[in-house]
């Protein structure tokens, strides 16, 4: 038998190795020794929140305006979006309950459009914390009951979503919901119960059982994360939490508003992102009071980056931004630029601006390609270009 030419043999080996690497490389975003990777390379990027990406299609199957925007985002160097992959109110889940095939046909459109646009997706599966218990006809404390209909629904919907879309390269990560722990263990919980809007599917009354506890929220996070891991062994899992309140530890331990120490802040941050959740989730907005002795957002981001490295859990700043006050958004731009510089300097792997193409927030935060805040998208694009340049050096 005639032997292969050495150059041909090397080419065959290289081709085989490339195919083997592609087969062994997980899809989406995944971890190696606490480092966030995508397609075998460390990943750092800034995206946007596209809250209504799917909800528009829930409301109107012919409204594909959000899908068309994905290609524009890709061209503008916005590589991924975080979005609500569910209904907000119980009423918004009616299509899923009555015609799940049609519901998933519409969600399929979102995933397919993202694949075609080469934009990553971070779907958030249970956005509004009272909604699933309300949908199941149970009080909110049933988020913490392993035997509840609420827990069973969380498992079932998670299984449906993950098994349906885990083979899509567009899916970057799986997120549970939005800012659940902000409502947990409040000293004034009796006056902060969720809204009562029966026309939108809520119950007509609320009781003390509708006051969310951190224990119930953490149980729900853990149930979700374990269910994800049953079907997807590698993609990162995100709780979706905001930054812990400055008194979160004391809220839980003493039902007081006393400020937490730095060690207490760290304890709460880790408590609220329990294994097998493998990331730290925070949302950051300019405030007059920052936790753990930090004095501003750059200093806070530095602290969060240090805790992320220490715990081997990559930081996801799932929302950041600054509210416009008055007609001029110059202060908003300066604040956004300051946050982006800190994200870049601290090498935060993942962050997303709040919010893209959400008309309800036109006066404060909404960013589009043709409104006065469009320059914020260019700031993000510039940041992403610099991140890529640094990686390629």
Report on this model:
- By secondary structure, the chain is of the alpha/beta class.
- It has a single domain (27-45, 53-315, 338-349), classed as Glycosidases (TIM Barrel).
- The chain contains 13 helices and eleven strands.
- The chain has helices at 6-24, 55-59, 65-75, 94-98, 100-117, 131-136, 149-165, 214-231, 248-254, 262-271, 297-311, 330-345, 374-392, and strands at residues 29-32, 35-38, 41-42, 45-49, 80-84, 120-126, 173-177, 236-238, 280-284, 315-320, 350-353.
- It has an eight-stranded parallel β-sheet with strand order 8-7-6-5-4-11-10-9. A three-stranded antiparallel β-sheet has the order 1-2-3, with no helix packed on it.
- Helix 11 (297-311) runs parallel beside helix 12 (330-345).
CATH superfamily caption:
Glycosidases
Return the CATH topology. TIM Barrel
Low-confidence stretches: none
The percentage helix is: 40-55%
What is the string of helix and strand elements? HEEEEHHEHHEHHEHEHHEHEHEH
- What's the count of strands? 11
Sequence of strands across the biggest β-sheet: 8-7-6-5-4-11-10-9
Rough outline: globular
Give the CATH level 1 class.
Answer: Alpha Beta
Number of domains: 1
Beta strand %: 5-15%
- Cα gyration radius (Å): 22 Å
Number of helices: 13
CATH architecture: Alpha-Beta Barrel
Query: Could you give a short account of the major beta sheet?
Result: 8 strands, parallel
Q: What is the CA–CA distance across the termini? A: 46 Å
Query: Which structural class best describes the helix and strand composition?
Result: alpha/beta
